[in-house]
Specification:
This is Type II asparaginase. Keywords: Hydrolase, Signal. It comes from Massilia solisilvae. This protein has about 325 residues and is an alpha/beta fold. Helix 4 (about 100-110) runs parallel beside helix 9 and helix 9 (about 305-315) crosses helix 10 (about 325-330). The chain has helices at about 35-40, 45-50, 70-80, 100-110, 130-145, 235-240, 260-270, 295, 305-315, 325-330; strands at about 5-15, 50-60, 90-95, 115-120, 155, 160-165, 170, 180, 185-190, 195, 220-225, 245-250, 275-280, 300. The protein is globular, with a radius of gyration of 20 Å. The longest helix has 15 residues, at about 70-80. It has an 8-stranded mixed beta sheet with strand order 2-1-3-4-5-6-9-10. It has a 4-stranded parallel beta sheet with strand order 11-12-13-14, with helices on both faces. The protein has a two-stranded antiparallel sheet with strand order 7-8. Bound molecules: asparagine.
């Protein structure tokens, strides 16, 4: 322990960063979530020069299997740790598949300005040029950086700092997969230092109205994906199973196909909240653009992608079923 260094807690959840392959050239077909947190820390002795690190294994899963229950457990643990004066920042090691979702969930429910940084890797720990160790080093640097305080939940991979709201996985295999595309990344981690150039204007962490402290479950919300020839199978199934919200991942600017629209309108009449989002990946879904949202009593996702719109809708539904209020939240967070 060095009193001059920040105290950074590493919470491990699994993913490829904790994965192992049969050979050093195995970069696909490896097994995720095998290496424990102590081994991850031990693999990067340089960590002790930038922070007093300690580790905790919260889960050991591939992130495609992340659930709402995992998120509630993780968020409560993060909030409990950040309330301790001897914790300056938290790093969460995580699979990359749903990393952006966990980051955005925490961005909305963490009750602290202290840095929370999600990190993963695209190559397993056993690979040549594994990206996990450098990403972990950078994440710990970032979590211990005073400049990261109050910036919301951050993502550190490939020497870049991205904000939880706008970052997304853009490539299935390459190490430079996490990008905030048009809205832009926040900075770099270079030479053991975090360099910030921008911050999100959207509210997060201590400035949100959401509190998961007393929650043991989240409202049922699913995503209905749109494409040519789509019908009502998904929407009908979601309503039948009792969903209270549906995010429609529409084509283009959140368009509603002629065959699907009546099912969404009927679902809304039954009380289900409908959010129009887009599968495109860039741009605003404009209110009263591709559909008359005022008349249909639908909500638009603004620039949130469908998987993040699902998260905000779940949290919104813990507070209200008023569509005007929910729309306000989509323009706030
Ligand atoms: N690169 C990765 O971490 C992918 C892995 N399927 C996961 O999300 O756990």
């Amino acid at each position: 322990q060095n009193a001059k260094l920040p105290n950074v807690m590493i919470l491990a959840t699994g993913g490829t960063i904790a994965g192992t392959g049969a050979t050093s050239t195995t970069t696909v077909g490896y097994t995720a979530a095998k290496v424990g947190v102590e081994a991850l820390i031990k693999a990067v002795p340089e960590l002790s020069k930038v922070a007093n690190v300690s580790g905790e294994q919260v889960f050991q899963i591939a992130s495609e299997s992340m659930t709402n229950e995992h998120w509630l457990t993780l968020a409560k643990r993060v909030n409990a740790l950040l309330a301790q004066p001897n914790v300056d920042g938290i790093v969460i090691t995580h699979g990359t598949d749903t990393l952006e979702e966990t980051a955005y969930f925490l961005n909305l429910v963490v009750k602290s300005k202290k840095p929370v940084v999600l990190v993963g890797s695209m190559r397993p720990s056993t690979a040549i040029s594994a990206d996990g160790p450098i990403n972990l080093y950078n994440a710990v640097v970032l979590a211990g950086s005073p400049d990261a305080i109050g910036k919301g939940v951050l993502v550190a991979l490939n020497d870049q700092i991205n904000g939880a709201r706008d970052v997304t996985k853009t490539n299935t295999v390459t190490a430079d997969t996490f990008k905030a595309t048009e809205l832009g990344m926040l900075g770099y981690i270079v030479g053991g230092k975090a360099h910030f150039y921008r911050a999100s204007t959207r509210k997060h962490t201590v400035d949100t109205e959401f509190d998961v402290g007393s929650l043991s479950a989240l409202p049922a919300v699913d995503v209905a994906y749109s494409y040519a020839n789509v019908g009502t199978t998904a929407v009908d199934a979601f309503v039948a199973q009792g969903d209270v919200g549906i995010v429609h991942a529409g084509t283009g600017d959140g368009s509603l196909p002629a065959r699907t629209k009546p099912a969404l309108v009927a679902a809304r009449k039954k009380g289900v909240i409908i959010v129009r989002s887009s599968r495109v990946g860039q741009g605003i879904v404009a209110r009263n653009g591709e559909a008359n949202d005022d008349e249909l009593d639908f909500v638009v996702s603004d620039t949130l992608n469908p998987q993040k719109a699902r998260i905000l809708l779940m949290l919104a539904l813990t507070k209200t079923h008023d569509t005007k209020e929910i729309q306000r939240m989509f323009y706030t967070y």
